[in-house]
User: What shape does this take?
Amino acid sequence: MEYVLIIGHDMDYSKFNFKNKYVIGVDEGAYQALKNGIKLDVAIGDFDSIDQEKLEFIESQTKVIQLPDKKNDTDTRAALKLCKDASRIIILGGIQGKRIEHFIANLMLMETYKHVEMLDNNSHMYIMDSSFSIKKTEYKFISFFALSETIITLEGFKYPLNNYDLKNTDPLTISNELAEDRGIVTLKGGRVLVIQSKEDVK
Assistant: This one.
């Protein structure tokens, strides 16, 4: 089962395919999703970021799991607990915004839960622990950050590497680009955070 968690408010949802996915609206993200015509399977959160009128609108459109204001959890983590036997979990939003601490918390959740990706209008983030390939897409820049030490080889990239010992304090592999239609990333041990970003907006 593929799950989609909508938690962001600054998103262009028109480019995303929600077909055959279990869609969860998280807090204000539930309102934004419904306002954009996205059908939700469930909404979850304490909904402290929206007013009563918006909450009533959400309740009129979908099932709601109301969380208490005071809790030892984030709304996003509570939503992730609903994703049983997930083959893929996509979090829309949550990368940028005024509350950077929420972004850091979401990064930690990516390390805790398997198969989690985060996307917004500009970036796509995911964690890999084995070799993989990357196709050339609208994401121009590709960065790799070691979550644990790994030996990395990059083929088909503008800046290739051969069996490079990448440590978690090493920023060498930031802002690479594909030189071919597909790049091959070979990992020997360890885990990397992959961030694909679109070209800078001038």
Residues 99 and 105 are 10 Å apart (CA to CA).
